[in-house]
Prior knowledge:
InterPro entries: DUF4434. The chain is 25% helix and 21% strand. The longest helix has 19 residues, at 216-234.
Amino acid sequence: MPDTPEFTDPCGTFDTATRAPYAITGYWLIPTTDHCTWRRQFRAIHEVGGDTVIRIGWGLQARPLDDDGRVLGGDGEIDPRYEPCEEDGVPCALAAENDLKAANPGNRVSWTFVYRTDEAFGPGLFRCPEFERRIVTRKTVFYRIVATDDGTDDASCTNIRAKGRGYHVILIAGAHEDSLTELLDLGDRFGVKVFPALPLAPRDPAQKTRAAKQGTDTLTTLTRRILQDYGSRFQDRASLGGFYQPFELQMREMKYDDDGEDDHPTLKVYASQHRIVEQEMPGRPVLVSPYLDARKERPFSATPKQVARGFEALARTGVGIVAPQDSRGTGKVGLFWPDEREEKVDERLRPVVGEETNGDAYHGSTRDYYREMYLARNRMVEQGHDVQLWANVESFEPSGGADEPCAAGSDRGRTDKERLDTAVTQVGRYVSKVVSYMWSDFYTCGSPSLAEEIARDHDRPIAADAVRVRRDIQDGVEIRGYGIPMGCTVSITWEGLEEPRVVDVAGVDLNEPPPGLPLGMRTAWIPFDWSRVPEGTWIRITVTAPDGRAATEPLHVRAQA
């Protein structure tokens, strides 16, 4: 019998072992054209305990045409991405306009929009196949959509002939093979939830940080069409965790009551898209990740209380998950405790805020902001809003990456696991999940890479919170955190104490954990006589593993009577 060659998969094996579970369990990914890269990334993320992948997306853009109907780019030249889209030698945008006018001479095209993606769509994308179609070229599959410019999006073709109206043409440059199907297949294999991005709103030309009001109706139509197609193809896919709202905004005091012109324009766009998700894919939450800015010197920065009010406005748009960027990577917020306000900021933050103290540089620390958002989240849940609070820990430094850049076009510096551990400590028990921007390429560049650092040191203790808890007649401390098994010791010290008090962990998970703790967070209890600590004193609590590795960041807890 002839030898049968061994089957070799060019992308490697499907190794689904979780070898080094870490506190961060979700990561952003950027698009890639290498299909093997997807699998390697999912495998590596799963190995360190990741169960969530969030996709970076693309934006809808309004574009002018030249005299021949070809799409122009920002430089005024013909955009090579859309130039191949032709129908019988006629550029697709012009062909769409010709078909509309042939159906009714009163029809007109008031604007053309473009959208690029690495996805491939099914027939659920179209409402009127007579005027909407798929155009296949060698490298790209184009989708031509016609939508009324008032956003009504008729259910049939009847009105196209019945009366002359204004239309927008949307040209989608897609792929021959659908990336989302591939990602969901990988998610099923590795037990990972995938959050594809919704179409990104056009930006207001006068204020780039806000969504353009003029493009909202067209964005709504495109979102509805894509979600309807998803509904027909992916409604029952367990690996489809929800959707990512990619339009970034600052977390600050904002108004949204769904009742007036003074509602924040970007939140109006959010609400429009979120309603479509609820209609077409009920039960799949929308995730948003706004950024924080605590810098006192900036007039547009926000205090923790103002950020909390912004959280409430976001919840009213129908968002299901708010995962604020901790903004430590950009230097907009610092990692410090209340008793460290007079200390100098971290050296790596000085390129952003200068030689300042923590208290002079920032309105508050990461922990201050997440605590206020936690309280705001509780208020919104009481009012009937089903919203979760996650933390998005930035995995880079403000600068210093020029010699060894991790991401193309960026000088962000590499960070280390020690700083990640500190960031996880700061968000504390206030969040139900910790995710991170972003896996590719901040976790994979350099040697050793950040991912390799995590794999080697994943079970170092991370203490996130400590509260006074009695057991029977004994006073003590309950510590909440990661990697705190039996055999750990806890060191407690405060100013004026000659020698730290070192106590063995007496029990783990002795009580039912508080609701909403992140996956992997446990509780450990130690006996401790609080009466020995002067009231109002800040104590420092450090957890040490049985093998001698101490938590990177001690907890700072103020003694209360």
